[in-house]
Design brief:
The protein has 464 residues and is mainly alpha-helical. The protein contains 20 helices and no strands. The protein has a domain at 134-340 and 371-455: Na+/H+ antiporter like fold (Up-down Bundle). Helix 3 (64-87) packs across helix 4 (92-103) and helix 7 (125-146) runs parallel beside helix 15 (314-323). The chain is globular.
Amino acid sequence: MPESVSNSLDASPKPAVVTLIYAGLLVLAIGLFFVIRSFGEGLQPGTHVHVSLVKKSAAGHGQLSEVLISLVTIMVAARLFGTLFQRIGQPRVIGEVVAGIFLGPSLLGRLVPAATVVLLPPTAIPVLGILAQLGVILYMFLVGLELNSGLLRSRAHTTIAISHASIVAPFLLGALLALAAYTRYAPQGVEFTSFALFLGVAMAITAFPVLARILTDLGIEQTELGVIALSCAAADDVTAWCLLAFVVGITRADVSGSVMTTMLSLGYIALMFAVVRPLLARFASVKTSKELTAWLLVGVIASAFATESIGIHAIFGAFLLGAIIPHDSEVAKSFRQKLEDIVSILLLPTFFAITGARTQIGLVSEPLDWVFCGVIIIVATVGKFGGTVAAARATGLDWRTSSSLGVLMNTRGLMELIVLNIGLDLGVISPTLFAMMVLMALVTTIATTPILKWLAPETNCRST
């Protein structure tokens, strides 16, 4: 551990004080949400009709040649935009997200509609949708493999206090914002509770992989700021995904069904840690072979299927399996090397293209819509930044480190897009609100690097 980190943590409040403050924060947050819920339950949702542009039809309807053309288009656009954004100091993933939006109806589809039909034929969309879902499942497994549980345990009190404050503050502000958004942007038939919970979770997400990439590009991943940011973001991710799993369970079922979903989810998590984790520990030091790789992939798909069947989402099962494998084991290192390129070069850009096809910025057409979009960006930023800074200062960190940490935790990127796509698939948010939230994810992530350089000018961005 860097000496500066140890010094900062030695000066932090006692664990008992942090625990007491944290417990009070949770009780206050729960109480405030129920107050917001009491106001929102009397509201009527908007007139939006949920329409998913990715039809859940059979994958075989797409012609092979059209699918191949689409994949070539997506990969070329992702590489071009990724390289362009990387040269201006942004993570490559932001360029790939922009490439997906460029190929969709918001830009290319509006400027040259005929080109969109040729490059992304409608009959290829169902196949691309399946590939995109598979890509997200495998990506979340890789995110789980990178999760350093030891890092979380070694800084438990500071990490949990900061990360959960950075979740609670934007979550409550998002739920409060739902009071204003519900009557205008909620689809018909969506209950306020589900809408408010989802909007709160969407505001609270931090993109751990994108944040890690930014720290590496700036060369500060081993500094006090970098170490604390990584540990907080990892804890943030775990908490946010568990919270999202709960929200999805409530949205998909009635009250009794959501309780059953929650119980089954807890049981599955216990099973994975008590039974599967010890079994996997036997192979942790073994270099992966084709046989072991095959069984691991079977495990990923089976775990994803299990959580999907329980009533949450397939990505949680994939993430959980990755998280119980030691991140520094031979299995994790070898599997990342084998899987990372195919996921990042082929499958994730396909997910971005599908997201772009669903992002209709043209729906944000009225001045009031753009004003509300700006409000979403401000609320998301203030919630993340304010909650992080307040908790960081309370745990003994100085103002510059606390402010820089607040900027880093505001990074959303790919994780936010995954959450938003889940919300759109479930019909919890309308296409208009989906477009606004995508713009929020882009703005908050793009702003991270330049603001961080301004706050901490001593950081040097590396070329990657």
